[in-house]
Specification:
By secondary structure, the protein is an all-beta fold. The protein has 1 helix and 34 strands. The strands form 8 sheets. It has a 9-stranded mixed β-sheet with strand order 11-12-13-14-1-18-17-16-15. The two termini are 32 Å apart.
Length: 488
């Protein structure tokens, strides 16, 4: 395979993904412990730093919560400071223009780093950015590097030590190849390399794991088209010919991935089920594979998409929508939540309700209390639209039950009963790391609803643009260490 030309500060190295090496990575359990203030203990603590093993961070006590709302069509990002308590509307602190997160930004998404930077991809300009907020919450691009993204940045991942960021391309290579951009988050230098695709019809899914050597993670995992392979990151960064250190078969039809250093597993959704792969200590080499069926709890599933790692690092959630063959009957679609215990490789399937949901659950299970799930109903439905809070505390007597529900004003151009949803508006959701506030956009109406998860009171505020298509939303806390290492 011929190396590609460097772009900007990039270097280019070809990868022969069919070759198999005999080198296996060593492993080290990295434990990051966050010191806690001794005076106040919050009820919604987050497993952070060491990704759920020992350290605890009191979300909402060590930083300020912000909401980012994006309008991809207008190429604009809006930043709001979220209230610490009460029901006051979030305060708009700044706007960034000229940034295109893409027409379907739920794939590559964004990642908020512990150092305060927010990683994102400008798909129109083929560049990766790091944005930082100042004390007043005003955003500024602090890092930028040229990347090869093609039509979209499909999936993204950050290393457990938050030193490296991987983003592949879609449609940027030849008929049988794609590119991976591996960015050093200290220097913001991009090493770009080409990868042979096992199935060009599927996306390339990246993972970063393994022992952290001086400034370098040990392993880069790449999955696509029924195969997952492990590569030595040192070889990639040093520009050496790179071959697969190990590989394992996975199911076809992949759409979304996760990595769990806490349970030494990584995984990917497939048409047959959730493939959970043992990956050695802190994920340094591929070892075993178990497939967890989408059918569980006496219910029939379909296929899960866009998995999210649970707050404790030991479970993973998928959303499943069972839509009728007739697209006009979308209101009868069954929305399910599929939850897998990564240690036992067992799942539970939970019926959430009927209707449609643009992204299933809202953003992520970001608090130790709730997961927010948005349901859209037909125009004029007495339920309006709904934001449901699902209890995600494993020891709770109400575990995986709907704890509370808030009604949301329906969208002006929302879907209509008996008519396909094509061309109708959608919603996007988010929830703060401390679990205090959940959000839902009103596509086409330029509105956002904020739900106080304690009182379920809804506060609605206007966005500067219409948010056609539902836009994109994510909530984050400055200085917060995420458990989920994938962009969403």
């Amino acid at each position: 395979m011929v190396p590609s030309s460097p772009l900007g500060r990039e270097s280019s190295t070809p990868i022969d993904s069919a070759a198999a090496g005999r080198r296996a990575g060593r492993s080290l359990v990295a434990v990051l412990i966050l010191a806690l203030a001794s005076m106040v203990i919050a009820s919604s603590a987050w497993a952070a730093g060491d990704h759920g093993r020992k350290g605890r961070q009191l979300a909402g006590k060590h930083g300020r919560n912000f909401l980012m709302v994006a309008d991809p069509g207008e190429k604009k990002l809006f930043f709001y400071e979220v209230p610490r308590r009460g029901n006051a509307a979030p305060r708009l602190t700044g706007t960034l223009g000229g940034v295109d997160l893409g027409v379907a930004p739920a794939h590559g998404g964004t990642i908020a780093l512990p150092d305060g930077r927010i990683l994102m991809n400008d798909e129109a300009a083929d560049r990766t950015l790091a944005v930082r907020l100042n004390k007043r919450g005003k955003p500024r691009v602090v890092d930028s590097v040229s990347t090869t993204l093609g039509d979209e940045a499909p999936w993204t991942a950050v290393s457990p030590d938050f030193r490296y960021y991987a983003v592949p391309s879609r449609g940027a290579g030849s008929a049988t190849t794609e590119f991976v951009n591996l960015i050093d988050l200290k220097t913001f230098r991009n090493t770009r390399f080409e990868v042979a695709m096992n199935n060009p019809a599927e996306d390339l899914h990246p993972y970063l794991g393994g022992k952290s050597q001086p400034g370098k993670p040990r392993t880069l995992f790449l999955a696509t088209g029924g195969k997952m392979e492990a590569f030595r990151v040192r070889d990639v960064l040093d520009g050496l010919p790179t071959t697969s250190a190990s590989s394992i078969r996975i199911g076809e039809g992949s759409h979304g991935n996760f990595i769990s250093p806490e349970t030494n597993t990584l995984g990917i959704t497939t048409a047959n089920g959730l493939d959970v792969i043992g990956c050695g200590v802190f994920c340094s080499s591929l070892r075993s594979r178990a497939t967890v069926s989408w059918d569980a709890s006496g219910l029939t599933g379909g296929q899960g998409f866009r998995p999210r790692l649970g707050f404790d690092g030991k479970s993973v959630q998928n959303t499943i929508g069972l839509y009728p063959d007739d697209p006009a009957a979308w209101a009868d679609a069954r929305q399910l939540l599929h939850v897998t215990d990564l240690r036992r490789k067992r799942a539970k399937l939970v019926f959430v309700g009927n209707g449609t949901s643009q992204r299933g659950f809202a953003d992520a299970p970001t608090s130790s209390r709730f997961l927010a799930y948005i349901l859209v109903h037909p125009k004029g439905d007495v339920r309006e639209d709904e934001l449901k809070l699902i209890d995600v505390r494993p020891k709770s007597p109400r575990y995986l039950r709907v704890a509370r529900t808030a009604q949301l004003e329906q969208m002006t151009n929302g879907p209509i009963a008996g008519v396909p949803t094509e061309g109708k508006e959608q919603r996007f959701g988010a929830i703060t790391p401390d679990g205090r506030y959940a959000f839902a956009t009103h596509g086409g109406d330029g509105k956002v609803s904020m739900v106080n998860t304690s009182t379920m009171r809804v506060t609605q505020f206007a966005a500067p643009t219409a948010l056609r298509g539902g836009g994109y939303a994510t909530a984050f806390e400055l200085g917060f260490k995420p458990v989920d290492l994938m962009g969403r």
